[in-house]
Amino acid sequence: MKKSLLTLAVALGMFGISNAQINTTPQASADVGMKPIKEGNWMVGGSIGNIGYAFESNTFNFALMPRAGYFISDGIAIGAQANLNLKAVKDLDNEWGYGISPFIRYYFPGGASATGRFFGQGDIGIAGSSAGSGVGLNVGANVGYAHFITQTVALEGTFGYNYSKANINTGDKASGIGFGLGFQIYLPGRR
């Protein structure tokens, strides 16, 4: 009798475990429309990797750019981003950079889908570096695509042109194209 009860308990336990293992696929997109980019909403996130090539100095760059913005109207956000980067030059010491740049971002209404939006972003700011070359100027113009994986989170890809001048009083400058991968979290406002 004990063996029968033990066998029945094990069988019921195995049946319960097998029913609990429901296979689900991860969510890859969400139908959001205009909801995340409405006036009064906030966005927080940034580029977790920005890889670029500078034409003048044959250098490779890697940057981390956290950002936060506020939607002043539907599809238009203003905010600020921090620029934390590493510049690697062949046969020289690595250079660490830092800075802050206000930005404006516009989400294009045309070409949009229910799960994503194309956008353009422009920024201008100041920067410094571990090389101690003084205060510099940073300017960027990028285009990108935000793909919403949930109602409030989007993965982004960007491509654009960036210009920096290490010291405003000298002729040292660098320009180049770059691409980035990042994410944004869209938070609803009080409206």
Automatic annotation (TrEMBL):
Keywords: Signal. Residues 1-20 form the signal peptide. It comes from the Bacteria. This is Outer membrane protein beta-barrel domain-containing protein.
